[in-house]
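Posting for a labmate who doesn't have an account.
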Amino acid sequence: MLYDAIPPYLFDPPSNPCVPFGEGFFEPVAPLPPWHGEWNLLSAPCGLPDAGTAAIETETLPDGRKAVAAEMYPNAVPGGVAVTAYTLSRDRQWDIDCLDACAVRWIPVLSNGRPNVAGGSNAKDVGLVIQPDGTHQVTCEGEPLYLYSAEQPIFPTPAAPQTTGTAGNGNGLWGWGGRFPVVNPW
């Protein structure tokens, strides 16, 4: 069965009624999403991803550099998980070239409304562009933002208990006619 050409999946909530489920549910199984894909609720009226409101912030990569990140799973992990954001060098401002197979490998950062901006990011530089299917993709200075589907998570350690986020291991990879660099913060 397809819903608007997309195979839907039934969310099977945990058996404990005290555990939240549905939007914002966190499945505590490694590897954490979006490493190897992203799950979205579907909007009933149109069958498009119902992404919620994106949150854009800065993160510190393992090498100490700062990068722009999309905060994922804010209700599931205290403080959310900062996931490194990338642009495609082939994209022009307010134009999206990473579609179809590219968007499976490089997941668009989607938002149902104006993204929340925090952590040193500049709200005036964050916006939205409409994809061909009608969804809204987050932009930074007009450049569409993506998440790398094979991103590597960084988990807390005894030496750095507050460290969560991603490694930025997609930085500089080539594909679909361009390079995917990490987005430098303002």
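Reply:
Got it, the structure tokens are right above this. Residues 23 and 50 are 9 Å apart (CA to CA).
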